[in-house]
Design goal:
2 copies of one chain form a homodimer. The first copy, chain A, is mostly helical. Chain A folds into 3 domains: 15-141, MgtE N-terminal domain-like (MgtE N-terminal fold, Alpha Horseshoe), CATH 1.25.60.10; 151-264, CBS-domain (Roll), CATH 3.10.580; 279-457, Tetracycline Repressor, domain 2. The first copy, chain A, has helices at 15-26, 34-47, 49-58, 61-68, 73-77, 79-82, 85-93, 97-110, 112-120, 124-134, 158-170, 195-198, 226-236, 256-275, 279-282, 287-313, 316-321, 323-352, 361-391, 394-424, 433-457; strands at 151-153, 179-183, 189-194, 219-221, 240-244, 250-255. Chain A has a 3-stranded mixed sheet with strand order 1-2-3. In chain A, strands 4-5-6 form a 3-stranded mixed sheet. In chain A, helix 2 (34-47) crosses helix 3, helix 2 (34-47) packs across helix 4 and helix 13 (226-236) packs across helix 14. At the A-B interface, helix 11, helix 12, helix 13, helix 14 and helix 16 of A face helix 10, helix 11, helix 12, helix 13 and helix 15 of B.
Chain lengths: 458, 458
């Protein structure tokens, strides 16, 4: 994620360099973080495809399993072109369930068949787990959980459970354990107790004997929206969240480190949507696919631009007699578009952060309209004087001033109203709202300016 | 952060409701999460200021300390208008150092004097800590650390240290402990060991006896940029990060839950900057202050819009003889603006996420230029035909088609180049880049379209 983490100046990323890493790994002298190696391996892939494939083939599955799950999706997608299905299956079996299912999912995006073969070579349990995790929708919490967790039953005593934990960790089955997740005999989720609390009790105690107020009980249904999980993590400062099914059976957990990435994904999606690009499409390798997706939004924008031109067309006679209008009219539209974008962006973001919601609609609209009126008056005065001095037509100054006020007002009003309505209708307020808004500000801008000109100047 | 967390339908947020909460708290029957209560208290503040102040005064310091640190900054800023300095000092003394320093900082924003009086009423140690934490710049890691952590020395044995931990937790001094941070006798940071590892060892062992490979050693200098901390958390999936001074003495720690908020703040800042609004200003209570800040950006936009108009002015004669040009010219500019914004947004975001950096400049520019040329050709064809059919002037179709290609090309090129150059120059590529870009696309759009028209049509 960040090149500060790697001394790109010093290390030369080469076949020899990675052979050295592999040697260290085999001699247990391995100290690098897989994330950094993933970054370097991606770099090698870009600089020398052959060396990249050579190293991937040479690398022990234990090591590649750690590195691969830190690699970007587009690299994971194509790993089946580099490695045999057998080796990938071997690597997959060494990953945590969430990383493994993500890898298989990514491979299936590029080569459905390879993904199937790899799955078929896994043991029944891994196969079942991965198929289950990949059966969730992208926005469901279940898609992000791992089923590796420290599960304890009410009648187990702390000491025994910790011995079990030790074994599970030595067998590389469990890692990043923050809690013991407590369940009944039939796997019903009761609550979790942090290790920091647990270790303060007498180890001969059974979990059933522990004071309930020491249990936390943050869980989420596997079908619920992952954004609800994000909210719980950020609001309640959780380290891990239990994921349960509709019968409150414990299925898995989501850990805090997954949430960082999800937050950034959500924010990226929002930022891109407002700019008329799709996050998924932008991650395509092919320039053609990226361009095609952007073209879709540009196409919509072209239609709205033509719409605005039709409005201008209504007043061609007026423009004919006052060319100054043609010179000035983009100013009104541009100012409206910018003021509207300011309002739209703030409203969309504050709704996303939960700082405001539908109940505050009146308050938000009032605030935005007030701001836009004040700024409308300000810039009406400025541009009115500028227009007058420029073309020496006093009434032209009046016309542009009034239309500036009208357009900034509508920019503030619609910049707030559009996302609020979309949100209320269950539509992502970031998607498409910019196009709708600029259509409004263009049409209102040109119509008010040229319309007023026709009335006042002719 | 999210109202799904509160049953706003069922609970009526009132004075009586909070008196009930306070009673529960006093009877140790208190089960709500402080975050939710903070949300509800903010709601009460909005609906009934008097009840809000009454409840704040009534609430025990222990409870209010938990709730207040979950409240937004603008509420913290004004708490000194509601509560006595003495009570606030009392509340502050019950907070973690990072929350306490944040509270004092927020109060000082609103009432410097009150902040000083409150500080003066704290014990020497708290005062020193808070002053130290608030001495950091907003972007320095030290500003986000807390000095409450589980510090152990090499010669201490595990069992004794855990006894100490138990006491520290019972005294409400420590919470959210994931590691033991190991230091030398003179507080030099050696490394950290996760509780999940620690508890698997024989408790009679000294920390000096533990195998070094069980230690993690992720630390950051207190003066380094907080964004580096964010990168370390997201890249290395950390739960906590040790903060050290220039002599590697352990000063404090940053925990994963702080990072969630910082990521969202960073993303909000970026999103707002691209839209020409300031995150800080948007959080002001006063509509006037918010509006003034937005006006600044609108003012800059007005200048660039006038610039574009000057370009149009060069061709008033051409427009006079072909009013169709006035009707069509906004289309070229608008398409350029949109295509450019797409490129700009993607480039800025991918640089921020570290997916691309200056070394990739050539690759990015090539990619964006290719996309913009392909889309340029596509929309040139479309709009060329439309313009021809509309005004029945074949050459007009040719003119707008060529200028569309030129403008989308410059949109792609500058949309990529502008943020890359800003980044290279150490300027935040999100700030101001949109204005620079739209200036380019407007000027190029109008100039190419009207210029070509003058050459070809006249």
């Amino acid at each position: 994620m960040d090149l500060k983490m790697i001394d790109t100046e010093e290390t030369i990323i080469s076949r020899e360099y990675f052979l050295g890493i592999i040697a260290d790994f085999k001699n247990d002298e391995f100290e690098r973080h897989p994330y950094d190696l993933a970054q370097e391996l991606v770099e090698l892939r870009e600089t020398n495809e052959d060396d990249y494939e050579y190293i991937c083939k040479k690398m022990p599955s234990e090591l590649l399993a750690q590195i691969l799950c830190e690699m970007p999706n587009y690299v994971q997608e194509e790993i089946s072109d580099v490695l045999s299905d057998k080796k990938i299956a071997n690597i997959t079996s060494k990953m945590d369930s969430d990383d493994a299912s993500m890898l298989i999912y990514n491979i299936s995006q590029n080569d459905e068949e390879a993904a199937e073969t790899i799955l078929s070579q896994l043991n029944e349990e891994d196969k079942k787990t991965i198929k289950h995790l990949n059966s969730y929708e992208e926005d469901e919490a279940g898609a992000y959980m791992q089923n590796e967790l420290f599960k304890v039953s009410l009648d187990e005593n702390i000491g025994d459970s910790l011995k079990r934990l030790k074994q599970l960790k030595e067998d590389d089955i469990l890692d990043n354990i923050f809690h013991a997740h407590i369940v009944t005999v039939d796997n019903e989720y009761i609550g979790s107790i942090g290790l920091e609390e647990l270790i303060l009790f007498d180890y001969t105690l059974k979990y059933a004997d522990l004071p309930e107020e020491k249990f936390t009980n943050y869980s989420l249904n596997d079908k619920e929206d992952i954004e609800d999980a994000v909210d719980m993590f950020t609001n309640y400062n959780l380290s891990a969240l239990a994921v349960v099914d509709s019968n409150n059976k414990l299925l898995g957990r989501i850990t805090h480190d997954d949430i960082h990435d999800i937050i950034q994904q959500i924010d990226t999606k929002q930022l891109y949507s407002l700019a008329g690009v799709s996050d998924d499409a932008e991650h395509e390798e092919s320039i053609y696919l990226i361009g095609r997706n952007r073209a879709m939004w540009l196409g919509i924008n072209l239609i709205t631009a033509v719409l605005a031109s039709l409005v201008i067309g209504l007043f061609d006679a007026t423009i004919q007699s006052f060319v100054a209008l043609a010179v000035l009219m983009p100013i009104v539209a541009s100012m409206g578009g910018n003021a509207g974008t300011q309002t739209l962006t703030v409203t969309v973001r504050q709704m996303a952060l939960g700082e405001i919601d539908y109940q505050d609609a009146k308050k938000i609209i009032y605030k935005e309209v007030m701001i836009s009126i004040v700024n409308g008056l300000l810039f009406a005065a400025v541009i009115g004087v500028v227009a007058y001095l420029w073309f020496n037509i006093p009434l032209l100054g009046v016309v542009i001033a009034i239309s500036m006020i009208i357009n900034l007002f509508s920019a503030g009003f619609f910049g707030a109203v559009i996302p609020i309505i979309l949100q209320k209708k269950g539509i992502d307020p970031a998607i498409g709202s910019t196009v709708i808004l600029t259509t409004v500000t263009d049409v209102v801008g040109f119509f008010s300016f040229l319309g007023l000109a026709t009335i006042i100047l002719l």
